[in-house]
Amino acid sequence: MIIPPPPGRPAAPLDLELVQVTKRFGSFVANDRVSLKIPSGTFHALIGENGAGKSTLVKCIMGFHTADEGDVIIGGHSRDIRSPADAYQFGIGMVYQHFTLVPAMTVAENLVLSRPDLPATIPWEAERKRLNAFMRTAPFQVDLDQPASQLAAGQKQKVEILKQLYLESRFLILDEPTSVLTPGEADEVLGLIRRKVEAGELSVLLISHKFREVFGFCNSVTVLRRGKVTGGGLVKDLTTDDLAAMMMGGPRTPRTVAKADRAPGAVALELKGLRADKDSGVPALEGLDLCLREGEVVGVAGVSGNGQRELVEVLAGQRPATGGEVLVHGEWYGATRTDAARHGVFLLPEEPLRNGCVPAMSVAENIAFREFDRPPIRLAGCLVSRRGIRGFAQGLISRFGVKTRSTETPIGDLSGGNVQRAVLARELGPGTAKVLIAANPCFGLDFAAVESIHGQITEARNRGVAVLLVSEDLDELLSLSDRLLVMSHGAIVHETTPAQADVKVIGHHMAGH
Amino acid sequence: MNTESIGWWGVVIGILAGAVRGGTPFLLVSLGECLTEKCGKINLGLEGTLLVGAMSAYAISYKTGNPWIGVAAAAGAGAVMGALHAFLVSRPKVNDIAAGIAMLIFGSGLAFYLGKPFIQPSAPQLPGLELGGWSAMPQVAAALKISPIFLLGIALAFLLQWAFRSTRFGLRVRAVGDSPAAARALGISVGRTRLLGITLGSALSGIGGAHLSLFYPGAWTEAISSGQGLMAVALVIFARWNPVHCLYASLLFGGAQAIGPSLQAVGVSTGYYLWNASPYVLTLAVMIATCSTRRTLAGAPGALGVPG
Lengths: 513, 308
Ligand SMILES: Nc1ncnc2c1ncn2[C@@H]1O[C@H](COP(=O)(O)OP(=O)(O)OP(=O)(O)O)[C@@H](O)[C@H]1O
Ligand SMILES: [Mg+2]
What we know:
The structure holds two protein chains of two kinds.
Chain A: E1 16-25, E2 28-38, E3 43-48, H1 54-61, E4 69-74, E5 77-79, H2 84-89, E6 92-95, H3 107-113, H4 124-137, H5 153-166, E7 171-175, H6 183-198, E8 203-207, H7 211-217, E9 220-225, E10 228-234, H8 240-248, E11 267-277, E12 283-293, E13 297-301, H9 308-316, E14 323-328, E15 331-332, H10 337-343, E16 345-348, H11 352-355, H12 363-367, H13 386-399, H14 416-428, E17 435-439, H15 447-463, E18 466-470, H16 474-480, E19 483-488, E20 491-496, H17 503-510
Parallel strand pairs in A: 3-8, 3-9, 6-7, 7-8, 13-18, 13-19, 16-17, 17-18
Antiparallel strand pairs in A: 1-2, 1-4, 4-5, 9-10, 11-12, 11-14, 14-15, 19-20
Helix pairs in contact in A: 14-15
Chain B: H1 8-38, H2 46-64, H3 67-90, H4 96-115, E1 129-130, H5 138-143, E2 145-146, H6 148-166, H7 168-178, H8 180-185, H9 190-214, H10 228-238, H11 243-265, H12 272-276, H13 278-290
Antiparallel strand pairs in B: 1-2
Helix pairs in contact in B: 1-6, 1-9, 1-10, 1-11, 2-3, 2-4, 2-9, 3-4, 3-9, 6-7, 6-11, 7-9, 10-11, 10-13, 11-13
Bound molecules: adenosine-5'-triphosphate and magnesium ion.
């Protein structure tokens, strides 16, 4: 029996149960009879490989997708949730894996717009007072008048979480909320949410790839593998190895690639006094100097929003430099397609679906972007071989373990992690890279994928590729880099090596002191 | 004082009067286009809507004897055209530019067909506000005879400006136009918001048509519009999707349109046709001057020109 939403929103945390939920996309089964139970006031984790169906499952709860079979039970009654607005009525809120801020609107407007009970005309003065009062109790501060498009990934994620707190959701779904946060920020955010759970204000369903978060903050866990529940239970009864085995369908041996002992070679990439502006015209890079040699990984750490994005965009040719020089192998580098091919400069951009893919084009076409205009894919003249594209992509898809239904699936339909792998396959697959620029390459990947990407990067370095690794994950930087730079306010402010690194000192420089 | 003695002042007055009279259809259509584009879709069919509006206003004013009912009819006819466009562009794989061109041709065809019987008879006109009574010069008095639709347009420009910031509908329109995916995640119905926005926008340009046939030039002919509906699209870009800037831009374009005729009125007829081209030259000049390859157009709705 289906009962309509109750009048008024609940004040206590919800208990939620899924019974035999099945969701199909065409003939593909993304969720196969999934059942799970989250009692009121608990912090539940949902884990699984990339493409396991985690996001699909929670989108069914939110009414974004409609489950083909099965029931969502809230407070003991089967409920029919047909849209996110219905979910809101039940007190369910979600932070999506992909951002849902309206770029042209300010943070304040985004927060206000998210209220489904928005009055027809908005009394901005009263609304501002409410927002300011809310911000005083908020766990982190964001400039309310900044347009969302000007925020860095980490700041956007904070706004997404603030939005849910502002809406006073009683059941919070978080889809990989910390992939863009530094470990410190992640602990801060999850710690705050954990306190709200303990205070009896919230129930939480957290999707994560980080065991650290599962063990640090959650009460119970469910593991999905290829759409099916393969295990779960109370966190205190489980170990990392148990979870890994449930995720991968068997025990697993860690495979790390060791850094070969080699001295760095000739200078591959050199930036001299590089300057660039943000979209708003405000300077983002203020005379950045950097030197990268063959066979070394140089890590760039920093709080998001200090010019990292603009740096990568300049190197990618997405943003003009306003001053300074980029030299590759001693020659002026203009980031054109010809330059990139000639010097072997390859790139793993952040948010690859937005920065490195055409979402509506197929996986095969996206993977062939670097190669489609060269033989053997290019036939005589300007003809391109469809079969060549497919064959080329097929090889890389299996080598890099991209999970896709076919080579012709639009890349936008892939799970977040698999988009990342497809781009990685395109950039590292041909093996012609001499300079690799990677920005947050493990954003949102499961641990097996992280391990494999870290392995690929180290292998590339061992082969003599010069790697510039821009990342917000300090652990990643410390384990992969040969040299570590800290970026703040558009310039390099500190240099160290992982062996000598003092996390406190780095944190200090990151904060701009 | 007689006509001759004001000389070059006549040109200035002519241009100012033209800015208000000729700028009014620009204003209404550009506000309509602005609202439409803020929803993330373009409506090139507003030129057709303008003609349909002009024709319906004239016909209904003639039949009922009340020009205000004519204005209402123009708005209604515009709304119907807009709803049709909104329906078309909401279908998957329909391109809004192509649909807009179809609507343009459909709209003008419909207006010419239904308007045939109304070319001869004369319909009651909208009363103008005589703000120039203090002046003894007939030119000044004529220039200060203001169309009520112009006043409506000014009010609407400020109303829209306010609405985009401070009403639920306005925020939803901006969300839908900038990031439909985000809007969906917020539980906003993209289809419904666009339907409403495009329909209202089209109704505004219908009212712009009423100004043409019921105030200035004040008759129904097939040549009543000279591409104002299309130029309004450029005007909206020039105004950076800001309704109040649309008002200023409309006045500028209206004034530019009046340069040729005003010069001719004082006897300067060299380059008459060249002067008549000034609004178009102005469009190009403004575009070139304000476009930058460095920055994306500030204020451009993110979903504009993106299918879906
Ligand atoms: N709209 C869609 N149409 C077709 N297939 C889809 C759609 N959305 C998701 N899928 C497929 O469903 C599967 C599960 O995707 P989902 O996004 O739920 O994975 P996930 O567990 O969240 O992975 P990740 O950790 O990478 O985010 C994937 O194989 C994906 O390709
Ligand atoms: Mg996911």
